[in-house]
Amino acid sequence: MPRVQPEDFRLVKLQELRRLGVDPYGGRFPNTQPIGEILLAFEPESPKRVRAAGRITNLRAMGKASFLDIKDRSGSVQAFFQHKRLGQEKFRIHDQLEPGDLVGVDGELTKTRTGEITIFVDDFTVLAKALLSPPEKWHGLRDPDMRYRRRSVDLFTNEEVAECFLKRSRIVDGIREFLRQRGFIEVETPMMQPLPGGAAARPFITHHNALDIDLYLRVAPELYLKRLLVGGMERVFEINRNFRNEGIDRQHNPEFTTVELYQAYGDYSDMMELAECLVRSLALQIDPGGKLPFGEMEINYAAPFKRLDYFNAFQEANGFPADDVGRVREKARRLGVEEARLGDELVLDRVFEATVEDHIVQPTFVVDYPAALSPLTKPKPDDPRVAQRWDLFIGGMEMGTAYSELNDPQLQEKKFLQQLEGEDEEQETLRTVDDDFLRALAYGMPPAGGMGLGIDRLVMLMTNNPAIREVILFPLLRPRKEG
RNA sequence: GCCCCCUUAGCUCAGUCGGCAGAGCAACGGAUUCUUAAUCCGUGGGUCCAGGGUUCGAGUCCCUGAGGGGGUACCA
What we know:
Elements: H1 8-19, H2 35-40, E1 48-62, E2 65-72, E3 75-82, H3 83-94, E4 102-111, E5 117-128, H4 144-149, H5 151-157, H6 159-181, E6 185-186, E7 192-193, E8 205-208, E9 213-217, H7 222-230, E10 235-243, E11 255-264, H8 268-286, E12 291-294, E13 297-300, E14 306-309, H9 310-318, H10 325-334, H11 344-355, E15 364-367, E16 379-380, E17 383-387, E18 389-394, E19 397-404, H12 409-421, H13 435-442, E20 448-454, H14 455-463
Parallel strand pairs: 3-5, 6-10, 14-15
Antiparallel strand pairs: 1-2, 1-4, 2-3, 4-5, 7-9, 8-9, 10-11, 11-20, 12-13, 15-18, 16-17, 18-19, 19-20
Helix pairs in contact: 5-6, 6-14, 10-11, 12-13
The protein binds one RNA strand through residues 7-9, 58, 60-67, 69, 78, 80, 82-84, 99, 112-114, 116, 118, 132-146, 199-202, 244-247, 249-250, 252, 336, 338, 345-346, 349, 369-370, 372-375, 419, 422, 425-426, 429, 477-478, 480.
């Protein structure tokens, strides 16, 4: 038994092609024009010869003639195959074509009697015989699970899916362009790290045989990018994957892409300006009015984004101050948070999430977080309990975070050690002290602003897809035997 | 992790009160030289997710499990 069972009726056609002396898996087919361009260049009064290649998406056979719809990445065109025009031998080969096959065609571009722009084919090449049928033409491939598992089919069948990933590519291009113009250079730092740092999340663990050491897939690139600041790379960014061994839902995939950047001699207010400008410019590229739908919501990307002071917002939403530990815990219990085994600062964060963050729809910077939640962040000069940090929320999602980066090596060490002391509700969440990073800091890191933005979520907003799996080409799925 | 829903032909789906397993598309045979989801005539196609139970009889009711979807929880 082959691993993938071809459909019998397609094997028959495959054999017939070979019997006719045709290689069903063609070869180079040069000098084609994108179908979209062919259609744009059409002039009714002066028919031209054209050459196109693509997938047969539909086929209407009528005895001695048939119409095939041929689709490439740029568009779709009708091709007319006629016995009279092709001759007995070629028409016989044409009879073996089916929806899903890839063909190259040569012919004259004119209109049919009904006015459809059509390639009147006088020669063609079989480029690939499909041994599995494409999805049914009315409803197509709709089941989300099947769409993710067979993303190839999803992409060539569902126009809007292909479009979404085209947009994603353009968004990433846009981010790179934006940052280059501001003097940032792109770098790549380790995805496999001896110590997972930069965020508190459960890491994936792997093993390197030659060195016989465990390595962690990174949960964040932060500590490496900061080493580059020490090294004198004053404006750096990295667009790459992070890996977190956590749950999967509409906003979370175990591997996800972020852009993380550092700007020497700046701080979190520079990052705020940068983030606002970047996100706004991406939105404006899609809608000149800067208003985009997201599910039931309409998001207005007009500047300036709203600013919300963490402690003021907390007081306003809850009617008591964030440092009233007793009332914070009481509120947490009422919200159904199991607060007993959590530290004060984590309980506060839960209550803040439930009462403030979850209700944010329009682009909003939540500014000045409790320092206890932000160990890599420079505290405010006038109040060490407050960190120079903001989180950006849009459409109910956390889009990113930024700090004035902590560059005091001794304070950093102290904060690392405090993290170790805090009772750890997640046994698997590693909290370690990265001595090598501390050593780098000790050589002197310039004060800097740093920021991370979730690119998948950004794409969700820009393409109006409320599920992260719609914007990741191959989201993680449970493997399935029968396929 | 917990709650709710879904799983029937290659695909998209219907299936009433527990009583012979259904449609469209796709496939196969035929007709058709300007069609547009082509049309017309004909044919074949099922481990009803898996296992167990109730019943004279289960796609349908009950239990267990698997996979998926949605929600919720977790994710400095």
